[in-house]
Sequence to fold (185 residues):
Amino acid sequence: MTDKIYYEDQTHWSDADFYALWRYFDRLAEYVGPTPAQLQQPEHRSARISARKHTVRDEELASIDPGQMPAESQWLLRAVLVSQQRYELALEKFPNLGALARAVPSAAPRGYAQYPASVRVALDPVEARRESMADIVASWDLEGARPDEQGMQIVRDYVDGKTSLDEALAAVARRAERFREEENS
Fold:
């Protein structure tokens, strides 16, 4: 099994080695199947190209044993599949990849800076929360609803992992209700 890059011992790997691993996974993920967008627009060029790749690497994908992979390989493969919107399809087609759901992120993934933004977001829960909150705050700004300092603190607490999404949404809802009450009085 050690003939595949994703099973190798990564103890002495450089950033370039992790980049090579990402490139391998990035290409391998394209063989999983179509993305949701490709299913919606099968006539689009990317869907037509992708259609020729399906099933070509099924044997390799079905033989992957995440339990034999170093933790960083597991987490990176999961991140690549998520970033390409193929994770759910991969789990459906290849039950052996179900173990990726239990992959534990590394505190500081090596090679992180050279991965595309979509992979970095999938690798780093804090980055994912930051990206989603940046989009939400930008949307608020477009609507003229710029949050005050207390509102931004709720956002920062969520991004930092101090509160869950449900707690942050509840706090925002309570603040909105107080603002409505003040406006009506």
